[in-house]
């Protein structure tokens, strides 16, 4: 029986209709993406001249900037969505109808590894740890001047990646997007309602008690299929101890992230196209907890999702979690 679920963190509604997975041609799997030719890879080690000058790099051997010898490298986005400064747009004749402002902020690319790999799952787990430490360092660098930090990883062209070499992008925004502000408000309202409770910490505790949507647990974090999963095999990684901001010192969840990405690849037959982001506390958040969201792109968004904002998920989170536990 299809049901409507409300995500506790976002308030968004999802229709979970597992029976629709039995439709013709509805089977979910992934096929390997095209191989990456190192010779044409601008992010590969030795091709430093093909990118803008680096902003930051992890260089264990102390090598010079913009030379080989790095393990993670950060450069400005060649086609940035944000600029460090800008002039106000020309005023519109109807300011009550049309509002605009300069897109101020920072937009960086974090190259996750020197080798030509297309997915985080294909890197050694130790390299994923180094890359995520660099994510944290760059977020920390912009924290004082940004209202919201949003770090993403897009894997495969189907998920929006313009270059196949595994990389993250960091947006340092001077505003808090509406979706993130809404989460901030839900955390705050829950804290008031429960006399100081943390929404995600309490949700995690209940999910661990129930066990039906838990995928894996390690010393740092818990991986689960969210109750209101919008897409098949959606995952969420949550620190075991509440921390508002990913950029603060503490657990990274790197080993667990690497683990569940490998489980996805084994269950689906290959690394799927996916989007991943780090949700960290925006400005004005007195109650929050960071998390990592992983959304495989196995189905297409259609008229229901795009027109109403209501997603249709054909794999129940409990089923997804059970399959990934076995993977």
TrEMBL record:
Active site as annotated: 167 (tele-ump-histidine intermediate)
GO terms, molecular function: UDP-glucose:hexose-1-phosphate uridylyltransferase activity; zinc ion binding
Gene Ontology process terms (BP): galactose metabolic process
Keyword Cytoplasm set for record: no
Domain named Galactose-1-phosphate uridyl transferase N-terminal: residues: 3-177
EC number: 2.7.7.12
Name used for this protein in its record: UDPglucose--hexose-1-phosphate uridylyltransferase
Record-linked PANTHER family: ADP-GLUCOSE PHOSPHORYLASE, UDP-GLUCOSE--HEXOSE-1-PHOSPHATE URIDYLYLTRANSFERASE
Region (Disordered): 18-52
Keyword terms: Carbohydrate metabolism, Nucleotidyltransferase, Transferase
A Pfam family matched in the record: GalP_UDP_transf
Class of this enzyme: transferase
């Amino acid at each position: 029986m299809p049901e409507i679920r409300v995500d506790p963190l976002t308030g968004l509604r999802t229709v979970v209709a597992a029976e629709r997975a039995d439709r013709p041609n509805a089977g979910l799997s992934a096929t390997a993406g095209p191989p990456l030719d190192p010779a044409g890879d601008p992010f590969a080690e030795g091709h430093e001249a093909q990118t803008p000058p680096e902003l930051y790099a992890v260089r264990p051997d102390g090598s010079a900037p913009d030379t080989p010898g790095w393990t993670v490298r950060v450069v400005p986005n060649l086609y940035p969505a944000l600029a460090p400064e800008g002039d106000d747009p020309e005023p519109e004749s109807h300011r009550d109808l049309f509002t605009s402002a300069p897109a101020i902020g920072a937009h960086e690319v974090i190259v996750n590894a020197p080798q030509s790999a297309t997915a985080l799952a294909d890197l050694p787990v130790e390299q994923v740890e180094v890359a995520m430490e660099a994510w944290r360092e760059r977020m920390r660098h912009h924290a004082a001047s940004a209202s919201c930090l949003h770090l993403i990883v897009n894997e495969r062209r189907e998920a929006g990646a313009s270059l196949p070499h595994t990389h993250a992008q960091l947006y340092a925004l001077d505003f808090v997007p509406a979706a993130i502000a809404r989460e901030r408000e839900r955390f705050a309202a829950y804290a008031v309602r429960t006399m100081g409770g943390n929404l995600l910490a309490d949700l995690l505790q209940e999910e661990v008690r129930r066990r039906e949507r838990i995928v894996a647990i390690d010393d740092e974090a818990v991986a689960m299929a969210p109750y209101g999963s919008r897409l098949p095999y959606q995952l969420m990684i949550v620190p075991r101890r509440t921390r508002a901001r990913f950029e603060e010192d503490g657990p990274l969840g790197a080993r667990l992230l690497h683990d569940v990405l490998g489980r996805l690849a084994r269950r689906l037959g290959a690394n799927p196209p996916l989007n991943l982001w780090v949700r960290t506390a925006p400005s004005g958040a007195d109650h929050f907890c960071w998390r990592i969201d992983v959304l495989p792109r196995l189905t297409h968004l259609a008229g229901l999702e795009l027109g109403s904002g209501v997603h249709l998920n054909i794999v129940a989170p409990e089923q997804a979690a059970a399959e990934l536990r076995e993977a």
